[in-house]
Amino acid sequence: MLIRPALTEDGPDIARLVARSAPSFGAKGYSEDAVALVAVDAGAVVGWIEGVLDGAYTGPGALVPPPHGYVLSLVVDAEWRQRGVGTGLLDAFVEEARTAGCRWVFLFPDEGEGVEARVAFFRTAGFEAVDDPDEEWPVMGRWA
Question: Residue-wise over 99-132: b if at least 16 C-beta within 10 A, else e?
Fold first, then answer.
């Protein structure tokens, strides 16, 4: 498996991945400045992460001032889960954030069905809940 920056021609494969493995995932129009990485095996996109490196989490649990890395989306093909793809994508994004001068990366786990498993996964990937009493499920952060 190779993790690399997403290319324009990966768009249809990413769309198929999302439709197949995260059908309730809503399309979002993020900044052109978003960082997108893909995990590829034998020419097939098996995972995708997107985030920004100029985020600003302003809640009470922010450990350092902005800029913060902010993970917007992470999708792994259902057949590739629990094989290191998601963790590899998160690690690669955190490295991008570190290189860009961010000291901290945060995310908001999708609160839909299966949130407990997502929170557990993010914990195993090095993210910890931060103090944010306004959120039902924790905002999570990791040092870059």
Answer: eeebebbbbebbeeeeeeebbebbeebebebbeb
Handedness of CA 24, 110, 68, 95 (dihedral sign): negative
Averaged pLDDT for residues 119-140: 86
Query: What span, in angstroms and rounded, lies between the C-alpha atoms of 1 and 64?
Result: 33
**pLDDT digits 0-9 by tens, 46-68:** 999 999 999 998 887 888 999 99
Q: Which residues make Cβ contacts (< 8 Å) with residue 115, sequence separation at least 6?
A: 109, 137
| Pair 51, 72: CB distance under 8 Å | yes
84: left (phi over 0), alpha (psi -120 to 50) or beta: left
Q: Packing angle between helix 115-124 and helix 85-99, nearest 10 degrees?
A: 60
Complete domains list, the chain, with CATH: 2-143 (3.40.630.30)
pTM: 0.90
Contact 48, 14 (CB under 8 A): yes
